[in-house]
Design goal:
The structure holds 2 protein chains of 2 kinds.
Chain A lengths: L3 E9 L1 H18 L6 E6 L3 H16 L4 E5 L30 E9 L3 H13 L4 E9 L11 E5 L6 E6 L1 H4 L3 E9 L3
Parallel strand pairs in A: 2-3, 2-4, 4-5, 5-6
Antiparallel strand pairs in A: 1-8, 7-8
Chain B lengths: L15 H18 L13 E6 L5 H12 L3 E6 L11 H9 L5 E6 L4 H8 L3 E7 L5 H14 L7 E5 L6 H13 L2 E5 L15 E3 L2 H4 L5 E4 L15 H8 L3 H7 L5 E3 L12 H4 L6 H24 L5
Parallel strand pairs in B: 1-2, 1-3, 3-4, 5-6, 5-8, 6-7, 8-9
Classes of the chains: A alpha/beta, B alpha/beta.
Chain lengths: ~190, ~325
């Protein structure tokens, strides 16, 4: 499969992206006075990077060593049987028990909601958290399941051939959120 | 994304990239085995038949657990309680089981090449779980995984395989695999138990255990396969024990201090290896068994995902 992208427009530049992440973290702190009960789980790929960034900001402002984990939802996908190519598995890491904890699920983009559904299943297989909340950088609409984020960086309505790319300086050298058009291959 | 095949029949056919992919996936599978609830829903709807025409404890149970951990449905078939006794052929048995909408068959048979024979004739994926003296790929993969966890690199790793090399499918698969990974292999046994096919692999031959032990990183011990020996390959068990049994005394005297001991099981204590060593801190035997479940989960996942991918069916 050979997918090609064409950049269409920039949704958030470096400054706006940084500011949005700052805003998300202050909302999270405001909502969670008991920060010690909070555990952040980022969804691969990109959600885990964003989760680490959020955790660093939270650590600075609360001076509590907040726990961060990584979820790889490949084994829980509901489309494994539908189309290929075979997805590559990544590793999942839970930072200790999540029983009775507040889990903040972090992903870069929410679209159909199926990734979040898979992530919820995987978390439930690991333990019984008190509550699970969801933070995303971009809510792009187009939901196929009744799932809504608790914290949203930006909301935007996009066409079917359009796609969001969230770039973060840890992995992409720069912070930026842009819309690209998929013009080759099936998605 | 290297592995793209219907069947896993032997290490011989696998490229280094494919071996790496199986091992990497197996490492992720291991994480599931450490969870409070050791189960993922990945293979829901996939049916696996375990066709064992030869006795097995480790391999069969390891496959059954791997299937359960990934939520596949499985049926177990053993020759002793089946229509094979009534004269049904291997192919008929397999085709009948396939007709029950089975997606994967794990086959162990005393006849070399029987999984290959079935793979050509069945739509289902076939995994070789040991065919006669030929290959036992998942055993070699779990051994390689165990080694990978304990050593930084395979390049130049000094491995001695000691015992009945000739009749061991484990040794063939392991030698093929380690050779691909770049390890340096020495085989040690009485000349009658060393097969000729080893010659082109650059394997070092040694007939004396005392000369084999020094400087090795890994000692891989094999049992004498009485059930596969139609004639006498060794003068007597007593003589074999005297010359080739790995004793604590010989290990201390000749082998390096950091050496590790591996054995595919079943162990015949007091014959190829002294009981004391099998339970010592040198032994990785139980680590091998643990890796086995993860490797088999990985193989089941990688083979079935290819199969489910509609464009390639």
């Amino acid at each position: 499969m050979n997918i090609k992208f064409k950049e269409k427009r920039i949704l958030m530049d470096k400054k706006e992206t940084e500011r949005t992440i700052e805003r998300l973290s202050s909302e999270i702190i405001k909502d969670n006075p008991d920060i010690e009960a909070l555990c952040i789980m980022g969804i691969r790929k990109r959600g885990d990077v964003l989760a680490k960034r959020l955790a660093n900001i939270l650590r600075k402002s609360t001076s509590w060593e907040i726990k961060v984990g990584v979820l790889d939802i490949t084994l829980y996908r509901d489309d494994l049987t539908i189309y290929g190519p075979k997805p590559i598995i990544g590793s999942t890491y839970f930072p200790g028990s999540i029983d009775g904890k507040e889990v903040l699920l972090v992903d870069d983009v929410i679209y159909t909601g199926r990734t979040i559904r898979s992530a919820l299943d995987e978390i439930m297989d690991y333990g019984r958290p008190l509550r699970i909340k969801l933070a995303v950088m971009v809510n792009r609409g187009g939901r196929e399941l009744p799932i809504l984020p608790d914290y949203t960086g930006i909301s935007v309505e996009l066409g079917e051939k359009e796609e969001i790319q969230v770039l973060l300086k840890e992995t992409d050298k720069e912070d930026m959120v842009k819309v690209v058009e998929v013009f080759n291959g099936v998605r | 994304m290297e592995l793209d095949r219907k069947d896993l029949l032997g290490i011989q056919d696998l490229s280094n990239d494919e071996i790496e992919e199986i091992l990497t996936t197996a490492e992720y599978m291991e994480e599931i085995l450490t969870r409070p609830i050791k189960k993922a829903p990945t293979l829901r709807g996939i049916t696996v038949a375990n066709l064992f025409f030869e006795p097995s404890t480790r391999t069969l149970n390891s496959f059954i657990l791997a299937e359960k951990r990934l939520s596949a449905d499985s049926i177990n078939f053993s020759a002793a309680s089946s229509s094979v006794l009534k004269g049904e052929t291997l192919l008929d048995t397999a085709k009948n089981i396939q007709a029950m909408e089975v997606d994967v068959m794990v086959v162990r048979h005393s006849e070399p090449g029987s999984p290959h024979f079935l793979a050509k004739r069945l739509k289902a994926s076939v995994i070789n779980a040991g065919d006669g003296c030929h290959e036992h790929p998942t055993q070699a993969l779990l051994d390689i995984m165990t080694i990978k966890k304990n050593f930084p690199t395979f390049k130049g790793l000094k491995v001695a395989i000691i015992g009945d090399i000739k009749h061991s499918r484990v040794s063939r698969s392991l030698i093929l695999g380690l050779n691909k990974m770049g390890a340096k292999i020495t085989v040690c046994a009485p000349p009658t138990l060393l097969p000729l096919w080893l010659e082109p692999f650059g394997v070092e031959f040694e007939y004396s255990l005392e000369k084999t032990l020094p400087g090795k990183d890994i000692l891989y011990i094999l049992r004498i396969q009485k059930e596969r020996q139609e004639e006498s390959f060794i003068p007597s068990q007593r003589e074999y024990i005297k010359n080739y049994s790995l004793t604590y005394e010989k290990l201390k005297k000749f082998a390096s201090k950091e050496v590790v001991i591996m054995h595919p099981g079943p162990i015949n204590r007091g014959i190829e290896i002294e009981s004391r060593i099998a339970d010592s801190e040198y032994s990785l035997v139980l680590n091998q068994v643990t890796s086995g479940v993860a490797v088999r989960m990985s193989v089941l996942y990688l083979l079935t995902q290819r199969k489910l991918d509609g464009s390639k069916n």
